Amino acid sequence: MTQTTSNSREGLQFFGRISASVSHEIKNVFAVINESAGLIEDFTLMADRGMPIQPDRLKSAANSIQGQVRRGDTIIKNMNAFAHSTDEAVRELDLVEALDLTVALTTRIADMKQIRLTSGDCQAVSLVTNPFDLTRLLHSSIVAALDCMQAGDTLVIGLKSVSGGASFSLSAPGKDAPLKNDESFSPLAQAMNASVTVDEDTGTSELRVLAATGSK
């Protein structure tokens, strides 16, 4: 297998994992909507039998459906943005938006590990890069950090501009630095001129990404 074929397959596998995760989230949304709709149906059957309908319970079921519709809309928008990350090989990218999208796409994994995932201090930074590969790199680094953490921990991700690129900080308040190295995603990191450093004094790991080669 050539390196190009290997990278293509790994990218396709990543796209598949994200798609599968999103489909599970949407399925959960439908399940809650179906449950709430069933409650409303039960209330109408009770009314047909002359039993009074409790407005608060009816309103709660309707609010639940509306909330799940909003949740589903957000999930679909995130999936749409992720799908469009493959449109261009290289372009100038808003890294705050890219980080927010990656956090949203990774939250389900964090939830399964009972770890809170949140964005910290983020400077407005733009970078010429491959949008899909950057999402994959950020996702891989976050997952590697989560693998070193425990239930109840919080992973905070920040962003700042550095010379020639950007720095993503990963820290877990009160804990050691969560990301020790780039071993699990080393080939991708090398391909993107990215590197991981660790500051044990502050308990912070840093993922530094440089602009795509040849960009100004």
Q: Helicity level, as a percent range? A: 40-55%
Taken from the alpha-carbon principal axes, the silhouette is elongated
Report Rg.
21 Å
Low-confidence stretches: none
Q: What structural category arises from helix and sheet content? A: alpha+beta
Q: How far is the first residue's CA from the last residue's CA?
A: 33 Å
Number of helices: 5
Please summarize the sheet with the most strands.
Answer: 5 strands, mixed
Average pLDDT = 92
Spatial ordering of strands, largest sheet? 2-4-5-7-6
How large is the share of residues in beta strands?
A: 15-25%
List the helices and strands in order. Answer: HHEHEEHEEHEE
Strand count: 7
Folded structure, characterized:
The chain has 216 residues and is of the alpha+beta class. It contains 5 helices and 7 strands. It has helices spanning 3-48, 55-84, 95-112, 131-147, 186-191; strands at 91-94, 116-122, 126-129, 154-162, 165-171, 194-199, 204-210. Helix 1 packs antiparallel against helix 2 (55-84). The mean pLDDT is 92.
